[in-house]
Amino acid sequence: MADTAPQVSKDTMIGELLQINEGIAPILFGIGMHCLGCPASQMETIEEAASVHGINPEDLVSEINAFLAGNTEATQA
After folding, report:
1. Residue 7, in any domain of the structure
2. What are residue 13's DSSP bridge partners?
3. Can you list the positions of beta strands (E) in the chain?
4. Residue 69 to residue 27: CA distance in whole angstroms
5. Residues 3, 72: contact at Cβ < 8 Å?
6. Number of domains present in the structure of the chain
C-alpha cells in the first residue's frame, strides 16, 4: 500500500481542509457554504461550519473522509 489518505476530524479548520484537497470544495458548497474564500470561514472548524449550516458534523466528516479515501493520488500533486 503506497499512500494513505489523509483523515480529517471535526476540529480540522476549513482553510486547512482546502489545502489538503481543493476537491472538497463541492462538498462544502453542497451544504450551503458558499463563502470559502472569506477570512472568517478559513478559521472555522468543520464542526462550526456544519453547525452554522444545520448539518451533523460527524456526517460531514465521514463524507469528507470518504472522498479523501477515494482520491489518495490527487491529495498531494
Report:
1. no
2. 45
3. none
4. 14
5. yes
6. 1
CA distance 24 to 20: 9
For the segment 9-44, what is each residue's pLDDT rounded down to a tens digit?
999 999 898 889 989 999 999 888 888 877 877 789
- Cell (9 digits) for 33: 457554504
pTM assigned to the model: 0.80
User: How many whole angstroms separate alpha carbon 70 and alpha carbon 36?
Assistant: 23
In a domain, 56, yes or no: yes
Can you say whether residue 13 is alpha, beta or left, with left for phi > 0 and alpha for psi between -120 and 50 degrees?
beta
Instruction: Please indicate, yes or no, if residue 4 is contained in any of the structural domains.
Output: no
Residue the block writes with cell 481542509: 17
CATH assignment at residue 53 = 1.10.3910.10
Find the domain containing 18 and state its range.
14-74
